[in-house]
Amino acid sequence: MVKPSQVAFIDPAVQDVDLLASSLQFGIEPMVLDASRPAVTQMAEFVSARRDIAVIHVIAHGQSGRIDFAAGSVTHE
Question: What local confidence, expressed as pLDDT, does residue 33 receive?
Fold first, then answer.
């Protein structure tokens, strides 16, 4: 079995998280984030433990310059 080279970080505040996670394209590994921990920390921990990740997808709410995670927002100023 080939290891996935893509991961999709999914914020738990997104509607239908389980359906979304199970409906991803073949080869994209779903990783539902924990709402009680900073999202960026979780993503960094996951990626640092892996060497096969080529593409990272982030599925969350937001707007221009901001990603809203259940555990807090990440902004670009």
Answer: 98
